[in-house]
Design goal:
The complex is a heterodimer of chains A (215) and B (301). Chain A has 215 residues and is of the alpha+beta class. Helices cover 40% and strands 27% of the residues of chain A. In chain A, strands 1, 2, 3, 4, 5, 6, 7 and 8 form an eight-stranded antiparallel beta sheet that branches. The termini of chain B are far apart. The chains are: A alpha+beta (215), B alpha+beta (301).
């Protein structure tokens, strides 16, 4: 393996992928508001295919001036399978907290949960909802059904300036950069999909099939 | 046939609900632990039997599952449990209710359309119990039962952050047992241990529930006084000094006296870090030692 790396996706495939993501995110955004009263605007996603080893640098550039992030990871398994990483700048959890805790007081047991746990759980819940909505839509458009593992936090207050990539260096990550805007709050987040190598062939076929269904 | 058997015998609670929240299946595990048999709940609305589940968070998850095949996760950390059930025998003295981790997901019909959802309920009481034990071991001094240094550093950071944000007063006492080595040398290490225990008992009896007593090192203690201005902290310190020197100690019938020296410091506008405050308190303690011991010294301010 020297010289030019064979691009993972041909230009046409990348265009279809972008199109699928546009539709998926548009629908996910509408359904989140309609179904679960979470008013989130997902900006038109910007798709890039990156090597795992390039991910920290890329994130560092994109997230400036923030240099520390929290990363939520969730595995999904269908014909399309892999990991979804949701990256929020550190501190976003504080802004997200009150959007998601308004109804917690009715939790009949009077337990005191410390703020760290609450913030962590909020990140997980936001992650689960956003990842589920986005992946679910993508899968639906490509005629697939996926199941999910529970989300977990893979990195808390990770400093991007000197860290290892959350993705194995040789793996490809499909980076879907999108900004989440919750109601009035601007919380910027990035979603990365790391498709398992084995499902990339399937993904390519599904993308072609998706295009053909319109012809 | 096989799946039916597994459904009934698996060591996990499994429930299948129709879209309208009526119970379709209720496995034997659920019957066993909830005390509600399948015959008594199948066909009924889940919320009629468990009204406390009908709240925004749970409903939001149900809708997300039914609308776009999302999965819902209900962690023990946040919820403790969804279905109130007695904790399993060995944990009954620790938890009023079984600690649970629950998952929710879609059930699809043959056409692939979502027409219901499932809930799985896992008993995680054992794990939670171990977790609590680990947290305790990590925060509490084995000999005296007061907090250890690891706990202090985390707690102090939190308190300093809180004070900087809400402009409240925080004071810190550094406490050192005078000539502790002599007690060990004259009466033995068991007596030394007993002395440390007695000292922590006396100090604990003289501070508020919101304060923290920490064993900082061998015979050094630290007292974190929340919402306490400098002058008040000095008074507390003086009270603690008296609590130790006014009454003799006793070990195996031998009576002996013991004293402590204390340094008092309070969080000032210029102190941003843990080290700043610790250094101030340490300097004050050093002053107390130089003044002949059994004395309280405070920083100016």
């Amino acid at each position: 393996m020297s010289g030019d790396i064979q691009p993972l996706f041909a230009d046409e495939e990348k265009d279809i992928l972008q199109e699928v993501m546009n539709i998926a995110f548009g629908q996910a955004s509408a359904e989140l508001a309609e179904v679960i009263d979470i008013f989130v605007v997902l900006s038109v996603p910007d798709i890039k295919v990156l090597k795992g080893s390039d991910l920290p640098d890329y994130l560092c550039k994109e997230l400036k001036p923030a240099t520390t992030v929290n990363i939520i990871e969730q595995s999904f398994l269908g014909k399309f399978s892999g990991q979804a990483l949701l990256v929020f700048p550190a501190g976003a959890e504080k802004e997200l907290l009150h959007l998601f805790t308004q109804d917690q007081e009715s939790n009949s047991q009077d337990i005191d949960i410390d703020i760290d746990t609450l913030e962590t759980e909020t990140l997980l819940e936001v992650g689960n909802i956003l990842i589920g909505a986005c992946i679910g839509k993508i899968a639906e458009l490509l005629n697939d059904v996926v199941a999910y593992d529970p989300p977990h936090i893979t990195a808390k207050n990770l400093n991007l300036e000197n860290c290892e990539s959350p993705v194995p260096a040789e793996n490809f990550a499909i980076s879907i950069r999108t900004m989440f805007r919750f109601e009035q709050q601007n919380v910027e987040g990035y979603l990365f999909l790391i498709a398992n190598q084995s499902s990339i062939d399937w993904l390519k076929k599904a993308l072609i099939a998706f295009l053909e269904s319109f012809e | 046939m096989i799946f039916g058997q597994i459904f009934e015998t698996i060591n996990t609670g499994l429930i299948v609900l129709n879209k309208d929240m009526t119970v379709k299946y209720w496995n034997r595990w659920m019957s066993l632990h909830s005390g509600i048999g399948a015959d008594d709940i199948v066909g009924k609305n889940l919320f009629a039997v468990y009204p406390q589940l009908e709240r925004a968070h749970f409903l939001r998850n149900c809708r997300a599952v039914l609308a776009f095949g999302n999965f819902g996760f209900f962690s023990q950390k946040l919820h403790q449990y969804l279905f109130p059930m007695p904790a399993p025998g060995s944990r009954a003295h620790e938890f009023e209710f079984m600690q649970q981790t629950c998952t929710m997901g879609p059930i699809r019909n043959e056409q692939g359309k979502i027409d219901g959802l499932y809930l799985s309920v896992q008993d995680v009481s054992d794990m939670v119990s171990y977790q609590k034990k680990l947290v305790r071991i990590n925060q509490v001094d084995y000999l005296t039962g007061v907090y250890n240094r690891n706990f202090m550093e985390n707690q102090l950071l939190k308190e300093i952050e809180r004070c900087n944000r809400f402009k409240c007063q925080l004071s810190l006492l550094m406490i050192d047992v005078d000539h502790f080595k002599n007690i060990n040398d004259n009466y033995g290490h068991q007596c030394g241990d007993a002395t440390l225990k007695d000292i922590t008992r006396r100090i604990s009896a003289n501070i508020r529930k919101t304060d923290f007593l920490i064993r900082y090192g061998g015979d050094e203690f630290c007292c974190l006084l929340t919402e306490t201005p400098h002058q008040a902290a000095f008074k507390v310190a003086e009270q603690l000094r008296r609590a130790i020197c006014d009454h003799p100690f006793e070990f195996n019938g031998t009576s002996y006296s013991c004293t402590i020296s204390l340094g008092v410091a309070s969080l000032g506008a210029s102190d941003k870090s843990l080290e700043d405050l610790l250094r101030k308190a340490d300097n004050a303690l050093y002053g107390a030692k130089n003044c002949g011991r059994n004395i309280v010294v405070k920083t100016n301010g």
